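WARN retry 2 of 3 for item q-0093 after timeout on previous attempt; input resubmitted unchanged.
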Amino acid sequence: ALSALKRAKAKLPAERLYSLHPAWHRFMDRTYKYLTTSGLNGIILAMHTCLEVKLYGFHVHPSMGALYHYYNPDDVPANEGRDDGEWEAVRELVEHGFVSFAEPCIIECHDGKDVCDACVAEHNSKQ
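OK item q-0093 returned
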């Protein structure tokens, strides 16, 4: 992995490329029992280094409560089965106060269309 990172850096010297230690990947694999996304890795890393973590654009579809994705506004879910499992992990982190969503209605929009629509309407009426 390190040699691949070095090769990529040689091809793109202006790019900032980072790698995570293999022990980090073992920790995540043992903790979550599935291949986590870079997004969840970023959340957990942020929790280890920041006093407060707010999530912006973490989900990829309007039905998930965010109208954009943090790295690609036109993104679509790549692996909904994994994403569903990962959503439960993120929801637990939010519900226990470790992180928070910056946008309203993220949790409600995962709970169902009617709950989502009501939350979005309520939020829009307050603006």
